[in-house]
Design a protein that fits this description.
The complex is a heterodimer of chains A (260) and B (293).
Chain A: E1 2-10, E2 15-23, E3 41-45, H1 54-58, H2 61-68, E4 71-75, H3 91-106, E5 117-122, H4 124-135, E6 142-146, H5 152-163, H6 168-174, H7 177-180, H8 187-197, E7 203-209, H9 215-225, E8 231-236, H10 242-255
Parallel strand pairs in A: 3-4, 3-5, 5-6, 6-7, 7-8
Antiparallel strand pairs in A: 1-2, 2-4
Helix pairs in contact in A: 2-10, 4-8
Chain B: E1 2-10, E2 15-23, E3 43-47, H1 56-60, H2 63-70, E4 73-76, H3 93-108, E5 118-123, H4 125-136, E6 143-147, H5 173-182, H6 191-202, H7 217-226, E7 233-239, H8 245-257, E8 266-270, H9 276-289
Parallel strand pairs in B: 3-4, 3-5, 5-6, 6-7, 7-8
Antiparallel strand pairs in B: 1-2, 2-4
Helix pairs in contact in B: 2-9, 4-7
The chains are: A alpha/beta (260), B alpha/beta (293).
Chain lengths: 260, 293
């Protein structure tokens, strides 16, 4: 595969922003030709404190993507939690509105069709992926959350209970749990709304390790939605770590509804 | 503009390779005017000189800033020490840049495939390479730029006295001929590096000429005219203090001798030596000169 290491200007964020894009070769190393001129794309979102290059460095994503002939777009939310921050920058606007336009303008080979578009992420990136997929349910065919902070409001309430207060990071992004509930920052609310509206819904994959501090949340998500969504729930021994996500992303790629 | 590095496998070079590119952006940060908005961008293939690689131009000049004002994509690749040839002992850098890269770049990125939007230029060894590529494939380029050098096919002629070539004297010639005639070990005056290059690039050996081959600007230029091919416009410049001055003006004289100036050849001079200060100044002038539609 080819790897693009790029830095573009984001109007939404107001700054130069890094992005990595893995692209399928027109002619592979072994001489075989790429399947199609328009190829499917996976947007792969990193976790809190990570950067655009984390998935590249800590997993073998390029190798896995090569087997599937899929492009992968990895950019960053910096410290923004995939959210239009209360005290910060509008990162959700970057993902929701601007990123698809930038990808379309710069990569003519990446398919624009929803059936060729997939989103996945680890930890905070799982939250971001589900949010991005369900704010506009017809935009992608499948979304995967790996050890995701699926219910951010609930997580923040736990943190308040544990520590007495929220960190500055949390406050700058979301303000408070109350400010999340019933808004675009509230993933369960978004999903319930999408289900109620009765339109097309993406396939959903939720994976979590049984030793992960977010295990309860993820198990509850499965209980709540297994009959309401096309949901694949995968729990197995594992912690909140890259070895787990390197394994899980391979399962996600196998699970994606890719045309043959 | 956005800046990127593309890491990819080159089937022609048979190894992983890297290019640096800058692409126009519809909106840019503070301090820029907005670039012309196009779906497919005009493109300049920009070649480095001896010792360089794909990062040279981006690092040592403000080429990105100059290209931004014209909405011009720039592709910068590595040619190693190949003289931009399909090396006799080495890799096929000519094919890599002339054939493979444009296909890859147009496949991955929003780059125009029209001749009128396609340009090539370089400095020193890169200027020789750029014009060689443009003159070999004149149907592919609307214009070419040569900064600070001349027709490298003339270089080995220092050893080919009496071959009927009209190579002009260059600095260091007397010393080179004295060493050659004396039979002493070559390299005392620093020729070993150039001779090794000629050997690796062209399988050159003493007495062999590569004039009147596809490595020779003058032969290519005449062939194109004889065969009625479309001809790219040529921009050629050299600093007045550049050690390549005779080399460059030798080529100038050739192009200016062509009746009717069929290449639209333009010669420019300015104060300066063989250095990045000169190339930063002149790549800006070249980009502003380009006939971008």
């Amino acid at each position: 595969m080819a790897l693009v290491t790029m830095n573009w200007f984001s109007v939404a964020i107001g700054m130069n922003t890094p992005v990595y894009v893995i692209l399928p070769d027109k002619v592979r190393r072994d001489g075989t030709a790429r399947r199609a001129d328009k190829y499917p794309v996976l947007y792969l979102l990193h976790g809190g404190g990570d950067g655009a290059g984390k998935w590249l460095r800590y997993t073998s994503i390029e190798r896995y993507a090569e087997e599937k002939g899929i492009a992968v777009v990895m950019t960053t939310t910096m410290q923004g939690g995939y959210t239009d921050m209360k005290l910060g920058y509008p990162f959700f606007k970057y993902f929701n509105e601007e990123l698809p336009q930038l990808v379309k303008a710069n990569f003519p080979g990446i398919s624009q069709a929803p059936e060729d578009t997939f989103i996945a992420g680890n930890s905070q990136g799982g939250y971001g992926a589900l949010k991005w997929a369900f704010v506009q349910p017809g935009r992608c065919a499948a979304v995967a959350s790996l050890s995701g902070v699926i219910d951010m409001a609930a997580r923040m309430e736990e943190e308040i209970a544990e520590n007495g207060k929220l960190t500055d990071k949390r406050v700058n992004i979301w303000g408070s749990p109350e400010e999340i509930r019933g808004t675009v920052d509230d993933v369960p609310w978004l999903i319930d709304k999408a289900i109620a509206e009765g339109g097309p819904l993406p396939k959903v994959y939720v994976g979590c390790g049984t030793e992960d501090f977010l295990y309860e949340q993820n198990a509850q998500f499965n209980a709540r939605y297994k009959d309401k969504l096309d949901l694949t729930y995968a729990e197995e021994p594992g912690k909140h770590e890259w070895a787990f996500w390197d394994k899980q992303i391979q399962r996600v790629l196998d699970w994606l509804p890719l045309a043959d | 503009m956005s800046v990127l590095t593309l890491d990819f496998y080159s089937h022609v070079l048979e190894m992983d390779s890297q290019i640096t590119m800058v692409l126009p952006e519809e909106k840019q940060g503070v301090g820029f005017i907005d670039a012309p908005k196009r779906e497919k961008h005009p493109v300049l293939y920009l070649l480095h000189g001896t010792s360089g690689d794909n990062t040279d131009w981006e690092r040592w000049t403000s080429v990105e800033r100059y290209a931004a004002t014209r909405g011009l994509a720039v592709v910068m690749m590595s040619g190693q020490l190949s003289s931009y040839a399909n090396m006799a002992h080495g890799q096929r850098y000519f094919d890599y840049i002339a054939y493979e890269l444009p296909e890859i770049v147009k496949d991955f990125f929003p780059i125009s495939d029209k001749r009128e939007d396609t340009f090539i230029a370089g400095l020193s060894m890169g200027s020789y390479g750029a014009l060689k590529i443009a003159l070999t494939l004149p149907e592919n380029y609307a214009a070419a730029g040569a900064l600070s050098s001349g027709n490298h096919a003339m270089n080995p002629e220092v050893y080919n006295e009496g071959n009927g070539t009209s190579r002009r004297p260059m600095p260091g010639d007397e010393k080179r001929m004295a060493v050659y005639k004396s039979g002493e070990a070559r390299g005392i005056y620093g020729n070993a590096v150039m001779e090794r290059r000629w050997k690796l690039c062209w399988d050159w050996s003493m007495g062999k000429s590569i004039l009147n081959t596809d490595q020779d600007w003058f032969w290519l230029a005449r062939r194109n005219i004889e065969e009625g091919r479309p001809l790219p416009r040529i921009f050629h410049c050299c600093g007045t203090e550049d050690h390549n001055w005779q080399h460059a003006t030798e080529a100038r004289d050739f192009f200016q001798s062509l009746e009717g100036n069929p290449y639209g050849y333009e010669w420019f001079i300015g104060p300066g030596q063989h250095d990045w200060l000169f190339w930063d100044t002149w790549i800006e002038k070249f980009i502003n000169w380009l006939p971008i539609k």
